[in-house]
Amino acid sequence: MCFMILNEYRPISPITIRPTAIKLILMKFGVVIFPGSNCDEDLIYVLEKIMGQEVVRLWHKDHDLQGAEFIVLPGGFSFGDYLRSGAIARFSPIMQEVIRFAANGGYVLGICNGFQILTEAGLLEGALLHNENRKFICRNIYMKPQTSNSLITAQIDPQRALKIPIAHGEGNYFADPEVLQSLKDNDQILFRYCDESGNITPESNPNGSLENIAGICNKERNVFGFMPHPERAADALVANEDGLAIFESILSMVKV
Ligand SMILES: NC(=O)CC[C@H](N)C(=O)O
């Protein structure tokens, strides 16, 4: 299977999900479920019912990605967050397949606990430490794209501060100085926490993350992770659809 980022918009099987929506491609998403995942059904709801995508549920003990073209590791408390969030889930059998898939250029996204699992698995650099205040934080934050060179952010206005919920105890992104420098040199920072007006300040950093970093990608730009939960802000019923911008960006940029 071959993936590539399009230079220009070229939809496959276009669908229109809302009157104002852009045309999006259709894909088969694989959502990995670990014991303790708790955002899997929210994510599947958004992918299937809001975005009109095909979704296959992948159990952590599976050895087969069932032909999924885009893998998502959802949020939650895999294995009860024992040892560290994501530290046990990275040893689940399916992770061998996810790592192989990513090595072949397949797209993998980790949201919150999924991001933690990807760092534990070595697919993304750095680590998610305990929040600076040692408390579980569940509230809306704002975050702003830091690059347009990723399918996660390409279609989002770089000045737009997205209001997205966070819900984590270990979301404090850390990387040593060499890794941080290489993230910057390679334009791998996807989002930074900001205030409502888009200012990136210490006050707008909810958890102590290094330089307000909320999400990153790998050097090859096919593995992505961030702490905020766009799947909790993607339906008019919850009075916040800012998360749609991320799903729409993915679906207008990927070619299967
Ligand atoms: N919402 C989540 O995915 C929670 C992440 C993780 N269990 C934490 O508390 O840090």
Please characterize this protein's 3D structure.
The chain contains five helices and 13 strands. With 256 residues, it is an alpha/beta fold. The chain has a single domain, classed as Rossmann fold. Helix 2 links the parallel strand 4 and strand 5. It is globular and about 45 Å long. Bound molecules: glutamine. The site of glutamine has 12 residues, from strand 8. It is found in: Cytoplasm. One of its GO terms (biological process) is 'de novo' IMP biosynthetic process. One of its GO terms (molecular function) is glutaminase activity.
Would you list the SSEs in sequence order as H and E?
EEHEEHEHEEEEHEEEHE
Main beta sheet, described? 9 strands, mixed
Strand order within the widest beta sheet: 3-2-4-5-12-11-10-7-8
CATH class designation: Alpha Beta
CATH fold call: Rossmann fold
| Number of distinct helices | 5
CATH architecture: 3-Layer(aba) Sandwich
- What is the percent of helical residues? 10-25%
What is the SS-derived class?
alpha/beta
- The percent range for strand residues is 15-25%
- Taking all residues together, what is the mean pLDDT? 92
Number of strands: 13
The gross shape turns out to be globular
Q: Terminal Cα separation, in Å?
A: 8 Å
Ligands present: glutamine
- Quaternary class: single chain
User: Gyration radius, to the nearest Å?
Assistant: 17 Å
